[in-house]
Amino acid sequence: MGASFVDRSYKGKLTRDQIKKEFDAQVIEDRDYNGHQEGYSGDWQTLNGVRLDDDVIFANERDASEYVADHSDKWEHAVAVYFHEKVSTKTSAKASDQLKKAREGLRTTKFEIAEMIKNAKSVTIACKNCKSKITRKFLRDSNCPVCSSDLKSVTQNKRIARMNEKVDSIERKLRESMKKGKINTLIGGWCAE
Ligand SMILES: [Zn+2]
Fold it and tell me: Using CB atoms within 10 A of its CB, is residue 125 exposed (0-12), middle (13-18) or buried (19+)?
């Protein structure tokens, strides 16, 4: 029998009582929807109540969800935590546009490099790893079809690495430019199935 992690977020900073109410209501809904299935219904019915960990208010929903996944177990309590809603700013809206462009650029460059390798003048290309001689027109991407190792040149890889760095730095800028908004609640747990 396995387990699947199920979490839900709720608007606002729910009190302990409200959290319990939401949890109990969801259990009833799960029961209506999934039936009992002898305790392996893969939903909140398989959890033993809910506990609130309110020591930390997480910076975003993803961090909250990761914490709950790490701090709850199958057949045990569901865990509730608080997290801040993320609110975009002028800077983050700009960064978000830049990120879209940078990701598109990266995708295009990868495609162009793969095409360059495929369409080079010499009919075959030698794989440095497995020594296979591969007919270029049969390449589906820039990897060796025999051993999957990379057929790109050092220069081509450097170009991609630079573009990856740019994407990373814009992602960082985007994260840092988001404002902390209202506090919401997340409840989650590992459900037996
Ligand atoms: Zn190879």
Answer: middle
CA distance 47 to 23: 10
Helix (H, G, I), strand (E, B) or coil at 72: coil
Q: How far is the CA of 168 from the centre of ligand 1 (A)?
A: 30
The residue ranges of every structural domain in the chain are 3-87+180-192, 90-177
pLDDT value of position 117: 96
pLDDT tens per residue across span 41-96: 889 999 999 999 999 999 999 999 999 999 998 889 999 999 999 999 999 999 99
**What residues sit around ligand 1, an ion, with C-beta below 5 angstroms?**
127, 129-130, 132, 144, 146-147
